Amino acid sequence: MILRYSHQPWRRLAALYCLAAWTAGAGAADVLYDNGGPDGINGNNAGIAWQADDFVLGHGATLSDLHFWTYEAATAYRNSISWSIAADAGGTVGATLASGVQGNVARSATDVVLVGLDAYQYGLELNAPLALASGRYWLVLHNGAFGQMGEPNDFYWATAAANGGPDGRESYNGGASWGGNGREHTFQLTGTVPEPNGTALLGVGLAMLLLRRHVDEGRSACWRQL
After folding, report:
1. 199, containing H or E segment
2. Pick from 140, 187, 130: which is nearest to 163 by CA?
């Protein structure tokens, strides 16, 4: 008599547990939201106004980096970027959740020119990672410190194709009031996606132990029948 006993369920579950455990420790950076690249058509002035556009997270995440595109005159950049993340208030900019002014910004020319303005791509790391729950938020950007509204101001946040969400907003009075600017804007948000639930991993481990026990009992029963 030849005994055939498959260990495949045990091996599959073990592989699943190892993969889940490895993923739990990874917490890899990912694109959290992408509002699209430049459409090459227009931009809104972020030198004499605060410009804002909305984004939606489908799940909780930790935001760490901002990326966006501009059209600028040669001397318009003020060597720093002000940013804030605001809550949504019925389709417009609400209370500020986090903000900063950062001079350590990655800035590179893209060799694109629009009506005499050079295009640039920006990337900056937030002062501190920001944990956000699922929902709608607003990204606010300004050239230089938030209080700098004078010359030079030919600094335009590049527009993107319409995506079905609310158009951008702009404020000329330091965020006291916001009006529509009729445009979507180019930006991408990156950060860390949630790690797997530790309770779920524990459940997989317990299931493995129970299956192993079942395998051992079945093997013993087979030998007793010989």
Report:
1. helix 198-224
2. 187
Residue with tokens 């590049």: 158
**Which of helix, strand or coil describes residue 177?**
coil
- pLDDT, average across residues 164-181: 94
What is the number of alpha carbons within 13 Å of residue 146 lying toward its C-beta? 16
| CA nearest neighbour of 115 among 38, 187, 43, 48 | 43
Tokens 């509204």 locate to 149
Angle between helices 198-224 and 8-24 (to 10 degrees): 160
Work out the number of other CB atoms within 10 angstroms of the CB of residue 43. Answer: 26
Strand partners, 157: 44, 70
Angle subtended at Cα 199 by Cα 195 and Cα 205, rounded to the nearest 5 degrees: 105
Buried b / exposed e over 197-224, threshold 16 CB at 10 Å, is eeeebeebeeebeeeeeeeeeeeeeeee
CB 78 within 8 A of CB 210: no
Q: State yes or no: pLDDT of 200 exceeds 80.
A: no
| Stretch 95-110: mean pLDDT | 96
pLDDT band at 165 (very low <50, low <70, confident <90, very high): confident
Q: Is the pLDDT of residue 5 over 70?
A: no
CA atoms of 137 and 189, how far apart (whole Å): 12
Give the model's confidence band at 209: pLDDT under 50 very low, under 70 low, under 90 confident, else very high.
Answer: low
Q: Shortest CA distance to 80 belongs to which of 57, 60, 59, 106?
A: 106
Predicted local confidence at residue 196, as pLDDT:
62
